[in-house]
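subagent[fold] <- orchestrator: predict structure for attached chain, return tokens only, no commentary.
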Amino acid sequence: MPGYDVDEYVRNMLPAQHRSVVGALRELMRESAPDAAEVISRGSPAWKGDKILAIISHSRTHVTLAFARGAEFDDGHGLLEGVGKTTRHVKIKNLDALDRNALRDYILQAVTLDGGLPPGHAADPPAS
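subagent[fold] -> orchestrator:
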């Protein structure tokens, strides 16, 4: 899919029933990881800091938001699924099932693990 951008992906590749969920996820990523680049990776929308933070995939019934280093997250919300060594994901069936607070927390954890600072968090002042 060379040359495809995320807007084209949403218009041309994403089933209509998932567009509102993906739109909400894009908004959350813009708010919580403003320095992350929105890219197409492995044929799907993704967000990249130094490395891939998160990637979206879809099935007939839901959208999956996978976090590349999700196995390292503190999952106080209990929404993360998966058993691999690194990745964890959240399945979202519709906008009503989208837990913005939990996803915002996961996104901030992804940014932090990537070496970035979450929005509104200044770097520690230099030691004098």
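orchestrator: received. Logging for downstream: The helical segments are 6-12, 19-32, 100-113. DSSP finds three helices and five strands in the chain.
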